[in-house]
Amino acid sequence: MKGIIQALEGETINQYLLIKSVSRSIASNGKPYLTIILQDVSGEIEAKLWDISRDDEDIYQPDTIVLVEGDITSFRGKMQLRIRRIRQAKESDPITKADLVPVAPVPVADMMEKITQYIFKMNNPVLQRMTRALLKKHQQAFYEYPAATKNHHEYMSGLAYHVTSMLDLAAAISGLYPELDEDLLYAGIILHDMGKVIELSGPTATAYTLEGKLLGHITIMVNEIGEAAKALDYEEAEEVLILKHLILSHHHKGEWGSPKPPLIKEAEILHMIDNLDAKMNMMSRALEKVQPGEFTERLFAMDNRSFYKPTFTSKTVSV
């Protein structure tokens, strides 16, 4: 069956989808309705459920599988689903949550092996032990959680996939600029978003936890580094201070969430690599949804730009 993001305007769908998020609003006629984000392994689509009852609000909650019949429409350049019929999936239905959750394109075992190899490359004992301790503490969630609730790597194991891509970018850049401290850069990359395993609620129907809303993953991770340094008796080590700075500055600007701008070259490179990988992921996923010769929907995190998908390609396709 075609994925939800491959469905074209005007098509009718009748398939199982997973509710990713729900918000309640009041229509101009005074009646309540739900805005539901539905997803399958291909991606997600927004839908409206009009004239809802209290039972509807109780039934259609995040992380619920539903069978939906409806029409694919377009509103302000963005695909939407107009719901005709919807019901909660039954236990007897031939569907599971795992069938509908988008996952990283690389097996978890491969990502674990790659990250372990990068840790083994570290020669600095403080950075290596700190990174190993924190990864061991959060290992299960680190390899299951998405990197965000939206915009980039917003799928199961997306956090680890984002980190492995960044590590490979860092290795390539370090080959061009040998003056960079690879150990510091690798440690910063592995740890920079690890606070999201506390900031976010889980690998599916991901939302922000109370700590996530009040503290954010940057503050959470700085605290985690401090606790690990205390446990390992590294509280006075300068590496710990510098590692905290990399976490605090990786969003680059205050308006982007960083309390401090990068003041160390590895911190600047970490931000650039993070930004590059996130934006490439955003653009690639948006372009997957359109045909050659078409523009994507507007991407809010990319200055609200729409991107064009050329009709030609210079890449050689192997047979």
Portion in helices? 25-40%
- Catalogue the unreliable spans: none
Strand order of the largest sheet: 1-2-3-5-4
Measured on Cα atoms, how large is the radius of gyration?
22 Å
Tell me the number of helical segments per DSSP (H or I, 4 or more residues long).
Answer: 11
- SSE arrangement, N to C: EEEHEEHHHHHHHHHH
Residue fraction in strands: 15-25%
Largest sheet: 5 strands, mixed, barrel
Shape: globular
* Alpha-beta classification: alpha+beta
Q: What is the typical, i.e. mean, pLDDT?
A: 93
Head-to-tail CA distance between termini: 24 Å
The total strand number stands at 5
Which features characterize this protein?
319 residues; alpha+beta; five-stranded mixed β-barrel
Describe the structure.
The chain is of the alpha+beta class. It contains eleven helices and five strands; from the N terminus they run βββαββαααααααααα. Strands 1-2-3-5-4 form a five-stranded mixed β-barrel. β4 and β5 form a beta hairpin. α2 runs antiparallel to α6, α3 packs parallel to α6 and α5 crosses α11. The chain is globular, with a radius of gyration of 22 Å. The model has no long low-confidence stretch (mean pLDDT 93).
